[in-house]
Each structure stands twice: as C-alpha cells, then as structure tokens.
Amino acid sequence: MSSARDDILGRLRQRIGREPVGTPAARERVEQVISASQAGPRPSYDGDLAARFIERAKALISTVDDCAAPADVPARCASWLASQGLGRQVVVSPALAGLDWAASGLDVRIGAAAGDDPVGITGCFRAIAETGTLMLCSGAQSPAVNSLLPETHIAVVPREHIVADMEAAFAVARDTLDPWPRAVNFVSGPSRTADIEQTIVLGAHGPYRVHLLIVG
Amino acid sequence: MEIRSMHFVSRVRQRLDDTELQRNLQRTRGRNAAARLASLSSLDDFDAVRARATDIRASVLRDLDVWLERFEAEATRRGATVLWARDGDEACRLVIDIARRHDVKTVVKAKSMVSEEAGLNAALEAAGIRPVETDLGEYILQINDNEPPSHIIMPVIHKSKEQVSELFARVHGTAAKTDIVELTREAREKLRPEFLGAEMGISGGNFLIAETGSVAIVTNEGNGRMCTTMPRVHVALTGIEKVIPTLDDLATLLRILPRSATGQAISNYVSLLTGPKHEGDADGPEHMYFVLVDGGRADLIGGDFEAMLRCIRCGACMNHCPVYQTIGGHSYGWVYPGPMGSVLTPLYQGLEKAKDLPQAATLCNQCGVVCPVSIPLPDLMRKLRQKQVEAGLRPWSERLSMRLWAWVAQRPALYARGVRLAVRYLRWLADGRDRIQAMGVAPGWTAERDFPAPAVQSFRDQYAARQRRAGR
Amino acid sequence: MSKPPHGSCGEVGLFVTCLVDLMRPSIAFAALKLIEAAGYTPVVPDTQTCCGQPGHNAGDARSARALAQRLIAEFERFPCIVAPSGSCAGMIRTHYPHLFDDDDAWRIRAEALAAKTFELTQFLADVAGVTEVPGDFAGTVAYHDSCAGLRELGVKRQPRALLDRMPGVEQRPLSECEECCGFGGLFSVKYPDISGAIAQRKCDNIRASGAGTVALGDLGCMMNIEGRLRRIGDEGTQVIHIAELLAGRLDPD
After folding, report:
1. Which residue among B383, B385, B410 places its CB closest to the CB of C58?
2. Are C133 and C165 in contact (CB under 8 A)?
C-alpha cells in the first residue's frame, strides 16, 4: 500500500497534469517565488510611524506611555502599576534583566511567567505602525508565556523598533534572526472574545490589559 | 462529522419556526457586514489587496504538489514532523497515534474546522483521550452535548447569553450569570487549568508558510497561543490547500482575513509557529506535528471547482448571505454553512448527500462580491446544479420542464401560442380579480405570496396589433 | 442638453424578456417610450423569446446555450441592445460569454453582444445621457436594487439619478436596499418558506421607509415583493417598475 503522502501528492500531480519531467521546473519556480519574495499592496503612511503606532494601539485598547531612557523603565512600570492598583509583583523577561529593577520597589522575578503571575513585562522585537501591533519573538531571553499568562502585560517598545508594516518587520527578522524563533507572536491589544452575542469582552484567555511603554 | 444535509428542508422549517433562534439571528444580523465595510477604508486600495490575495492563493494551487513538498522540507528541517492523511478517519488515527506515543490524557483544542470535518473529538473520546475545546464558542458547544457550530468563526452566533448562562449554571454547577463579562470570566477560569495541565494541544492552521515551514494561527482570544505554547506536544491539523509561499504573502492575506471576518484591521493574536522549542527556551512544545489532510481537496485541483480551494475561511460569505441569515448555520447539516458550505459540502461529502445546498440559494452574488479571494460562489453553485442534472439527481419533472421550455422557446410561433395559452390560464385562475392566491402549478409561490393576474394580452400580441394599426 | 431629434441616435434592439411579455406588457411599452424619448429608434424583433436564464440557473447548460445562440443571432445586428431587467441584461452581459468557454466562434459573438447590452436605466443614463424623462409621477419613492442589476451590471446610481429628474418624486432611503428580496427565480417556488421569510424582511424595510411606492428594475423581484405585500394585507404600497415610473402615462392602445 502506498503511503498517504505519495497518494495525495500523486493525485495532485495527476490533477495538475504534471509530467514527471516538469517537476524540476516547478521546483525552480517555487524557489524563485520564495527567494524573490514580493510584497503585495501596502497602505502608505506619510506621517510619523511612532505616532501612527500609538494611535492604532490605543484603538486596540492598549494603553500607551512613554519614557525617555531605558533606565527609566522599571520606575515607569512601577508607577503605572501603582496608579492602576495592580500591585507590585511582576515577572520580567530575561532580555530586560539588565535594567535596575531593584530600585523600582517592584517585587521582581526574572524568567518565564507561570499561571499565577499577575504581571508580565516583555520587550518586543518590532512594533508595527500600520495596526498598532507588537511583534514578539520567543527565545531563551523572551519567553512567549510572559505576554500570555499574566492578566496584565507590559511591553517595552524601543521607539526605533517601530516599523511601518508586517513586511518591514519580516525583512528585519529575515536578516537578523538565526535561528528563526519557535514562535513569532503578533499581539494587538488585550485578549478578547465576541463569541457571546458578538459583544466584545476583554481578557478571554490572555491578558486583560496591554500597556505599552515607548522608550526613547 | 456526520452529515445531515439531506434533511435540509425539514431542518429549515424547524429553524424558521424557532422564535428564539430567529431572535438570536436577528440580534447580530448585519453587524459583521457593517464592520467589514467600515474596516476596508483603512486599506488604500482594497481591490488591489483582494486581487493580490486571490493571485497568491490561485498560484499556489497551480503548483500545490511542489508547494507542499517545499513546506514539508522546511518544516522538517526546523524540527517538526509532517504527516499526511487521505481523509478524516486517517487524520484521527494519526492524531490518536501521536497522543498515545506521548502518553497524552487530555488535549486542549484551538478552533480547527478540519477537526470538525474529521469528527476528531468523538474519535479522541473513543480512544480514551479527553478533548477540551478552548475557543469560547466551541467550548460552549462542547459542554452542550457536542452541539455542532453554526458559523465558522462565530460558532455560537445562534445562541443568546441567557442560553449560555443557563448552560454554564447547569454544567458548571455555578450560580446563573447574565453578564457576558462574567460568563466569559467563568469560562476562562474553567479553561485555565486545562491549558496548564493538558499534555497536547491541537490547533488548526489559517496558513502554512512554505518559506519558513510555519503554521500561522489567527485568534482573538489567545486560546490558540495557549494550546500551542503550554502543552508538551502541538499538533497542527490543516487541509492541504492552506499553503502560501512567503511571509510577505502572509502579510497581504492578514490585511484581508480579519477585515473580511469581523471587520478588524488585525486579529488580536497572530502566531507564527515553527518547529518545537529550541534548546534553552523556557516554553513551547517539545514536539510539533503537522497533519495535512486531503479529505476531497486534491480532487478539486484542475477542475471546475478549484477556485473553492482559495477559501481562507473568513465567513464573509455567510455574513452577507440572505439565506444563511434567515435559516442559520445548522440548517446546512454539515461543518460548513452558508455559500462556501453549499459548495464544499456536496464536493467533500458527495453530491447526492447535499442535493438542496446548491439549490437553496438566490444567486444574489453578495457572497461573490465580498469574498476576499474572489471565489465566484454563485457560478460554482450553478456548476453544481449542472452536475446534479448530469448525475440525474434532479427530479425528472424539473429536467423535463427545462427541456420543454427551451424546446418551445426555440420555436417562436409555438412559443407565442404558449404565451397566449398561459395568459388565458392565469386569467382564468384569477377569475376576474387582480391576483391569484392559490396556484396548482406553483404552489410554493402562492404559499407565501400572491401572484398577479397578467394583462389581458401579452406584449407580443399587443405590440403586433399596434404595429398593424400603424400600418407597419 | 437639448433633446435629440426623434430616432436620430440609431436603432436599439429591445429585449422585452419573457416575464414582461407574459405578465406586464406595460413595462415594455414604457421602455419603448423611454428609448424613443431618448432619441433612439427601438426595434422589437418579433421572434424573441427567453434569454435562457432559467436553464442556466437550473444547471441545464444545453438549454441555456441553445437559447443564448438564438438570442445572439436575433440581436447581434443592433448597435445596442436594451432590456428592462437587470437580471436578463446581466445574463447576456456577464454569463453569455462563459456559456461558450469551449466554443471560440460563439464566444466571440457572445462577447460582442455582451459589450453592447444594457439594462434600461443604465442605457438611459450612461449611453443616451438622458436628462429629461417623460414621467410625471408625484409621491414618495424608495428604490430597491435588484441583485443582478446591482452586482452584475453596477446599476445603482442610474435609476436614482433618473428619478431625480422627476420633480414630483421624493426619494426615500430604503434600509437594506441592496439585500436580495428572496426571489431567486425558481428558488422562490423550490424553497418557498425561505424565500417568503426573506421577502418578509424586504417588505418590513419597505414599509419602514415610509415611501408610498417602491420602484425597482426587475419584474421577478417586483412580483415577489408585491405578492408578499398583498399577502400580508398591504394594499396601499405601490410596487412599480422603474420603466413605468419614468415613462409615465402610456398612449392608450
């Protein structure tokens, strides 16, 4: 008995009418499409990318704050959490371990979030102005769970990481990420559902709040 | 999933008479269509994006075998295992094998329409593995005795919050809540331990990306992320038609999928998953599998219905369908409702099992106009009707009357006599009134509305008389 | 724009449509009057019958092709073909060429015919550039966009623009005016309860519009909507074909 794979591919070839000799040409065509990847039509945007990102992020019900320098990040996280009454306990992605968290007065653990961590703080690989979206890449320094399990997610967004669109972010990723991350997560505001009566409710399974700290 | 499309007519009648269902359908009617329209303005040129999206999907289908091989090679290189299933049963066997190999007791599932096609939940249960649906809507259906979804992206669009409240109180043994926020939190609290405890996560896949060997999963709730991050094993179960070439193509399609589905510029979470966890990663599955299911897809390549494989499962066609919005998704009797379901169901399950679906459409072409990948759905329904005629699946009386009509209409003199006869007959039925309220030749018409009495003479006769009078 | 002299603009082949011929000849007479008023000479080939749409939609491709060939042969001599129906004009314009996908000779003829076939209001507004219409209707009018006219031919602004030329007409917006009325040809008799439910919604919207008259461009939809209104006891709302409305009183026979 032939394998399911051979069966399916064989049927496809038969339906496509591919002669065995034609396959290398098709393979070449496929490689060509990938190596000369063409972006489709992209909405143009003339203004300041950061302003666009912030506007779109707010529309997605993220909250946005900015701070002048990376060194200010811990204190700004602490003051925002205090202002929201969200406590002091945070889990911070290892990528941000170099910041001076001790001085912030927060109860900080560096590492990956567990199910009961109330606040997760992450960096971000790139931020996408077109839609107000964070692009987070998983890795030893940036566990995916930190933006997922806690009820509050704070993302630190270096201003220079804000790019126009997903294509631009992918271009950077192709050039700089090796190995390719297991998970690339695009996050656009708090988790939500509209399954019951199409009424939007935040915090379906992931965070109830996403707070963005634009740095620089 | 067991098909019930052959009982379409009686299922429709029940649903038209179900006042609660009708109320629920009307509550949200038109909302997604309006949101879709509003969201298109944030694209400079929607038509250009649509054309590009169409082209991406169409070009892959032309070389689908090679794209699949390319995807498989890349996914394998990144540490995933790619398996193939000829049909739903084979897919279920593969998933169960994987579960057994990794000693899995509980599976958390993100939404996967292919798993509905395959009847995966029932198969898992029969194998002693507990599946837990985690999309809020799918979860509601599962705890309601495995009720099937009525919409591909809003599975419980047919339910009211009161019905959900009653269900939660009964199944969870909690106090009844009427606030949707509270109901959602209750489900969250029920499902959180499942995410943390399950050994395996099953997801569908919105797209498979050949460039990187990844699966892209689009959700709003975050359950897709949970299912693919927390358990030791991740299985992505998708149809073989889901491949797209590159990440740039993904970016294009993501401009059009959420907008078409819910009117969002982007869904909350888009996850691009590539292989198992890396050394040193704090999270992620240790094993990643793809199960690529044919289930009737390969047979559509190169034929009249290939365009249907471009479908990206956005649901816009049903959101805009006057029939779907009147009868609800369950009437259609299988996994996929609405216009796309009316085409897919007979193709995947057999023409004879879904005879009504391609017929029960007004061909108003709202679906064709809104489809983000330009699938000519009404044309495909017409082609299916043609296949039904060829296969002898239409009543002989209908086939005969069509033939007779065409035969007469090719003979103008005879046709003119026929028209005269018809006018006389209809006027006799009207019996001096301006309308006919019961008509034996078309009882369906007069069951629902009056039929007007025709004018005394047909146009052709009046016109001929006029021309004669004018001496022309 | 001044009125062009009678008949100076050339011949127009009028495809009456089988339904208008049988049920409501006044629509075709109205179309004749409008085409004449626009400065064209309407010609009505007397051997015309049906465009083949019923067969096409019922999956009887052979019948559809046979009738299409007849119609093409009958009408291809005209510089312009007009039908008082978006559905039949749409059949010719968008479906005919595909009936002959595997027959080059006929496909070319079908394409040529398709390119010069118009729905009546499309012809009047876009081809003839009509700025005056003979009708003198006075009252509130809501316009329902029939599916094929709207989505196959892009008929949307034309009937409304023509109605704007009638001082007595007060146009009222119709909620969900682009939604199907539930007619769908044989669908209406094969699935009467679905069709009736959709028609009911259309009638509810029409009644909510407050218009005394609903106008539209397809007799099938018209019979469906009018029939439903009457069945639910609405004897007051007038349902009228756009041609009849624009043409006004017809010459006594």
Report:
1. B385
2. yes
